[in-house]
Design brief:
This protein is an alpha+beta fold. The chain is 29% helix and 24% strand. Among the domains are: 7-104, Beta Barrel (OB fold (Dihydrolipoamide Acetyltransferase, E2P)); 294-419, GAD-like domain (Gyrase A, domain 2), CATH 3.30.1360. The structure holds one RNA strand of 77 nucleotides.
Length: 586
RNA sequence: GGGGUCGUAGUUCAGUUGGUUAGAACGCCGGCCUGUCACGCCGGAGGUCGCGAGUUCGAGUCUCGUCGGCCCCGCCA
């Protein structure tokens, strides 16, 4: 090795030792007769002092510039009285350079590397990602990601899980997410698909008798990107045989509960995780991935206004809808402009309108102040616990639509009022999802999770008669408003699986061609099984307090799924295309 | 596919009602400086105002188009 020690680990106890370091020049302070160099490697920074006494090393220090790669040999010594830098872990000492070898020079970096990088043009950061990754924040994130994955492997190994790899070149399935597709050279006109997840493969591993499987699995989905969605991402994919829902939840909850204090000890979490049904989550938070870091739950205030002659309210109640409300604490005196903005937001989220009602010392404020009878306003206050200074946001609509709009509003208020405590990871379980949801566009039932999800046994009889009422054995892990993981107990019987495909409107021929291998497998002693697949990128993003998953992925893609460093995707040589039997249409 | 927003020096930004040679800070280059640590002081270089049309005597500024970034909706078995 070109180094005997790491820069960031040197301490006062090393004083007197001669060390050889190698790293990058983070900053240079040239005092004419004395040069200080902050030398950086993965472990951190240490100050190297170049003194003219060592003429060669001093000359090298004069020539060195930012991001030059240096090998420094010298003696560790305590800093002089009053020169300790308390902001630096190694700030009590410095290394007096006896020799400085220039291992490589560097052009001036196109982006600053000594800050957190949030303000720097992201496209330039990504183009020079290998430099961007040198910044301390990203080094920390990548290391945290490593520790997280290492913890997962160790934990699951302890619990008897086997890590098993599954193929990347598999078969396209038309439903679900769009596939990334790979042309076959050996078979004209045929294509592989990259896995959206190893779902079927891990179920087949259960049929194969491995009982407990996991994989740090790369998944590819050719869908539009978001701050929390990349075209390729990583899941901790796991599956267990002979397990019920609670067994799966126990494994994952145990993993996360032990992981957090191990890798981010400053973070807090609920233990045990709260469990709520899908219906409850929708009613209380207006979403199936509630942010449980704060309250502001949705309250039904229909009873308070049941006699109201207000158009929207009366219409909603007459047609079986409801009047729902959330309370924004201390916002009663918000300006017209701020309130209008909320109304706009609620409408964008699907509400017909948003009524506001604020309780101020000077009386009622807001759009509903004059439209409601005093006793109605008073009853609303009682039902939702609003007091002086508070603002009620009220939506009258079908219950689901009202909750959905207020759910969106709730997140907006969270951000405006900073309601989410920092360092809280509010994990929770959402269970009892419906099996199907009605697809308006296609005019048929579609699965909510995936077609291998088991219906609840007691709802099997409803499959054909009333699919909308069938609950599934699916469950989600949520955290701080993100869906961190989905899972389910799977179907392990051919007859049940066939009934599900039928409900989804798949023809027999189609089923045989696409899922015949699964159905066949279920006939050879498939054990009851289930599992889930936490999203590693999102989890690490939350652990690292990052605003998007690009910050915890070494080489992420832009919102248009481009890699600006490689300039991918790119066109292929005609020869290459011919070999693959592909002609690009104009 | 739709909506929002942004694009000016290497980076972060300013740029008035359309009007002289487009500015600042950081970074960079040169000089000075032996205790700095965001070192300091002096000097300097650095611009296809994303790109293309148009309006105008004149466009960083106005119009249209286009490309790209980010966020949101749709989409995400």
């Amino acid at each position: 090795m070109l180094k005997t020690r790491n820069c960031g680990e040197l301490r006062l106890t090393d004083a007197g030792r001669t060390v050889t370091l190698a790293g990058w020049l983070a900053r240079r302070r040239d005092h004419g007769g004395l040069i200080f160099i902050d030398l950086r490697d993965r472990s951190g920074l240490v100050q190297v002092t170049a003194d003219p006494t060592f003429a060669d090393s001093y000359a090298a220090a004069e020539r060195a510039r930012s991001e030059y790669v240096l090998q420094v040999t010298g003696r560790v010594r305590p800093r002089p009285e009053g020169m300790v830098n308390p902001n630096l872990e190694s700030g009590e000492i410095e290394v007096l350079a006896e020799s400085i070898v220039l291992l490589n020079a560097s052009r001036t970096p196109p982006i600053p590397l000594d800050d957190d990088g949030y303000k720097t043009d992201e496209i330039t950061r990504l183009k020079y990602r290998y430099l961007d990754l040198r910044r301390e924040r990203l080094q920390r994130n990548v290391i945290l990601r490593h520790r997280t994955i290492k913890f997962m492997r160790d934990y699951l190994d302890r619990r008897g899980f086997l890590e098993i790899e599954t193929p990347m070149l598999i078969k396209s399935t038309p439903e679900g997410a769009r596939d990334y597709v790979v042309p076959s050279r050996l078979q004209h006109g045929k294509f592989y698909a990259l896995p959206q997840s190893p779902q079927q493969l891990k179920q087949l591993l259960m049929v194969a008798g491995f009982e407990k499987y996991f994989q740090i699995a790369r998944c590819m989905r050719d869908e539009d990107l978001r701050g929390d969605r990349q075209p390729e991402f990583t899941q901790l994919d796991l599956e267990m045989s002979f397990a019920g829902r609670d067994d799966i939840l126990e494994v994952v909850e145990g993993l996360v509960t032990e992981l957090v204090p191990a890798v981010v000890p400053h973070k807090r979490l609920f233990s045990p995780f709260p469990v709520m049904s899908y219906a409850e989550a929708m009613a209380r938070y207006g979403t199936d991935k509630p942010d449980l870091r704060f309250g502001m739950e949705i309250v039904d205030v229909s009873a308070a206004v049941k006699g109201s002659d207000l158009g929207l309210v009366a219409d909603a109640l007459a047609s079986g809808g409801s009047v729902k409300c959330i309370v924004a604490p201390g916002c009663a005196s918000w300006s017209r402009r701020e309130l209008d903005n909320l109304v706009e937001l609620a409408r964008a989220a699907g509400a017909k309108n948003l009524g506001t009602l604020g309780w101020t010392a000077g009386g009622l404020k807001g759009s509903l102040a004059r439209q409601l009878r005093p006793e109605e306003a008073q009853e609303i206050a009682r039902l939702c616990g609003a007091g002086e200074g508070d603002l009620a946001c009220v939506v009258a609509d079908k219950a689901a639509a009202a909750c959905r709009a207020l759910g969106a509003l709730r997140l907006e208020l969270r951000d405006r009022l900073r309601l989410a405590p920092p360092d809280l990871l509010a994990f929770g379980w959402v269970v009892d999802f419906p099996m199907f949801e009605w697809d308006e566009a296609e005019g048929r039932w579609n699965f909510m999770h995936h077609p291998f999800t088991s219906p609840k046994a007691e709802h099997l009889d409803l499959l054909e008669s009333d699919p909308g009422k069938v609950m599934s054995e699916a469950y989600d892990l949520v955290c701080n408003g993100y869906e961190l993981s989905s899972g389910s107990i799977r179907i392990h019987r051919r007859d049940v699986q066939e009934r599900i495909f039928k409900c989804l409107g798949y023809g027999e021929e189609e089923v045989r061609e696409r899922f015949g291998h699964m159905l066949d497998a279920f006939e050879y002693g498939a054990p009851p099984h289930g599992g889930m697949a936490p999203g590693v990128d999102r989890l690490v993003m939350l652990l690292a307090d990052e605003p998007n998953i690009r910050e915890v992925i070494a080489f992420p893609k832009t919102a248009s799924a481009a890699d600006v460093m490689f300039d991918a995707p790119s066109e292929l040589e005609p020869r290459h295309l011919r070999e693959l039997h592909i002609r690009v249409a104009e």
